[in-house]
Amino acid sequence: MESSYQVNNVDETWAVARQFAAELKPGDIVCLEGDLGSGKTTFTQGLAACLGAKRAVTSPTFCLVVEHPTEKFLLVHMDLYRLHGPDDVLTIGWEDYLARGAVLFVEWPDRAGDLIPANAWHLTFTLGETEESRTISIAR
Ligand SMILES: Nc1ncnc2c1ncn2[C@@H]1O[C@H](COP(=O)(O)OP(=O)(O)OP(=O)(O)O)[C@@H](O)[C@H]1O
Ligand SMILES: [Mg+2]
C-alpha cells in the first residue's frame, strides 16, 4: 500500500498526520525519511497533538528519545542520527518500548538496521517548489 500527499503548508501536513494517526496500532514502527527540514518532526508533532499528547513534541535531535503519552498509546519519537548501529539502538530501550506497546517514530531508521521489521511504515518527506510545499509518501 502506498499513498502520496501534496501539502502546501504546515496545517495540511498536520491534516495528513491526523488521518495517518487513525491507522496506527500499539507496537507499530514508523520510519521517517527525507530531506533535512522537510517536516519529519513537524508531522510527528501534529500527530501527537491530535492524539491528545499533553506536552508539545520538541525535536529529539538533542535528546535522542522523547516520550509522548497519548490517549491511545505511548508515542516515542527517536532521532538515531548520533547512533552507530542496532547495538546502540538497543541501549536506548527499543525492545522495552515495543514490549510496552509503544508506537515508535524513528528519524534516521537506517541506524536501526535489522531492528526495523518488514511491516514497518515508511514515510518519505520531499521538499516542494515553494517554501511550504512538501510531498509526503506513506508506504507499508
Ligand atoms: N508543509 C510543511 N510541512 C512541514 N513543515 C513545514 C511545512 N512548511 C514549512 N515547514 C517548516 O519546515 C520546517 C520543518 O522542520 P522539521 O524539523 O519538521 O524537519 P525535519 O524533517 O524533522 O528536519 P531534520 O532532518 O533536520 O530533523 C519547520 O520549520 C516547519 O515550520
Ligand atoms: Mg527532525
- Mind describing the biggest β-sheet? 7 strands, mixed
Specify Rg, calculated over alpha carbons.
Answer: 14 Å
Q: Please identify, by name, the CATH architecture.
A: 3-Layer(aba) Sandwich
Number of strands: 7
Elements, N to C (H/E): EHEHEEHHEEE
CATH top level assignment: Alpha Beta
Mean pLDDT: 93
Fraction in helix:
10-25%
Summarize the model shown:
The chain has 140 residues and is an alpha/beta fold.
Question: How does this model look, in words?
Answer:
This protein has 140 residues and is an alpha/beta fold. The protein has a single domain, classed as Rossmann fold, CATH 3.40.50. 24% of the residues lie in helices and 29% in strands. It has four helices and seven strands. The chain has a seven-stranded mixed sheet with strand order 1-7-6-2-5-4-3, covered by helices on one side. Helix 1 packs across helix 2. The chain is globular and about 40 Å long. The N and C termini lie close together (6 Å). The site of adenosine-5'-triphosphate has 17 residues, from helix 1 and helix 2.
Q: What are the salient characteristics of this protein?
A:
alpha/beta; binds adenosine-5'-triphosphate; binds magnesium ion
Strand and helix map with partners:
Layout: E1 2-7, H1 10-21, E2 29-34, H2 40-50, E3 65-69, E4 74-79, H3 86-90, H4 94-99, E5 103-107, E6 121-127, E7 134-139
Parallel strand pairs: 2-5, 2-6, 4-5
Antiparallel strand pairs: 1-7, 3-4, 6-7
Helix pairs in contact: 1-2
The structure holds adenosine-5'-triphosphate (ATP) and magnesium ion (MG).
Magnesium ion is lined by residues 40-41, 59, 107.
